[in-house]
Write a structure and sequence with these properties.
Length: 223
């Protein structure tokens, strides 16, 4: 986790330093913050890190409402400090990110975010293939610190429920921190992390751990 934090800080400082003094505002869009895409554009994003590799296609319905179908391959659970008998797991996520922009002022944007998904975990609790759902709700914000850099934050409660016997799940409260660097109108390089407390439960048993996710990636905007 320390390495991800240092990477985030280094990329933020480097991006600000590299931003040209005079140029078109390339950072007038965000795929993680509150600034949704214009309804004439779309974008493809790919990220890799812990606990997954993911891809999403961002498609705006209007200037303030955007949907992004998403697919991921995960190879761990994003929670540390749980019991050793909980298997990390390998699986897939099929979902969609939804953002509705609620407020804009200068370089600041705020949006409501939802992150529903179908979950397939092939080794949860060592019981074989199990299916589940994710019901994520939260707030996304971003601020353009320069013509090429967005600082992103927000929070989300991505509740996960697996239809095991007994029912198992994760109930985290995650804070988002990240930076998007736009060297051009069409390209975005990003570092994102999420962290916060997370409760694992299965039947009458429960345990509390520390949730953490970290990803780096690239996005292409189609004007």
């Amino acid at each position: 986790m320390k390495r991800w934090t240092l990477a985030l800080a280094f990329m933020t400082a480097t991006a600000v330093a590299m931003a040209p003094a005079e140029r078109a505002n390339a950072a007038d869009w965000s795929l993680f913050g509150g600034n949704t895409l214009p309804d004439t554009d779309t974008a493809l994003r790919v990220g890799v890190g812990w606990p997954d590799i993911s891809a999403a296609y961002h498609y705006p319905i209007s200037d303030i409402f955007e949907i992004a179908p998403k697919f991921s391959i995960f190879y761990g659970i994003p929670v540390f400090g749980l019991g050793a008998d909980l298997c990390c797991g390998i699986g897939n996520t099929f979902g969609a990110e939804l953002r509705v922009e609620l407020f804009e002022s200068g370089g600041f944007h705020l949006a409501f975010r939802a992150d529903p998904a179908l979950l397939l975990n092939y080794t949860i609790l060592s019981n074989g293939v199990e299916a589940g759902i994710q019901l994520g709700l939260g707030i996304a914000v971003d601020y353009s610190v320069s013509d090429s850099v967005n600082v992103v934050s927000g929070f989300e409660v991505p509740l996960q429920l697996y239809f095991t016997d007994p029912v198992a799940g994760l109930a985290p409260l995650l804070v988002d921190l990240g930076v998007e660097f736009m060297p051009s109108d069409e390209l975005s390089l990003f570092v994102m992390m999420r962290l916060g407390p997370s409760v694992f439960f299965a039947g009458d048993a429960s345990d509390v751990g520390f949730g953490y996710e970290g990803r780096i990636g690239v996005a292409f905007r189609f004007l």
